[in-house]
Design a protein that fits this description.
Layout lengths: L1 E6 L1 H7 L11 E5 L1 E4 L2 E11 L2 E10 L8 E3 L1
Antiparallel strand pairs: 1-2, 2-4, 3-4, 4-5, 5-6
């Protein structure tokens, strides 16, 4: 489990291009995952942006291969 995570707007937009120009502060939160970077599953986790937050679970596949990177939330 990562007790605290902070993601820059640039890092987030490299994975989710639709956020480019929308985010102007870091996303912070907690993430609990299992697996490896080829297939990483997340248990209930939380991301916070200002006064808003979202709880989610899901998985990321092919992290090291941007051409085949996929995620499910």
């Amino acid at each position: 489990m990562i007790d605290q995570i902070s993601l820059t707007p640039q890092l987030v937009s490299s994975v989710i291009p639709q956020t480019l120009g929308y985010l102007n502060t870091n996303l912070i939160g907690t993430i609990e995952g299992a697996g490896n970077l080829d297939s990483l599953s997340f248990a209930t986790s939380e991301i916070i942006l200002g006064d808003s937050s979202i709880r989610f679970n899901g998985e990321v596949k092919n992290y090291y291969s941007p051409q085949t990177l996929s995620y499910t939330i």
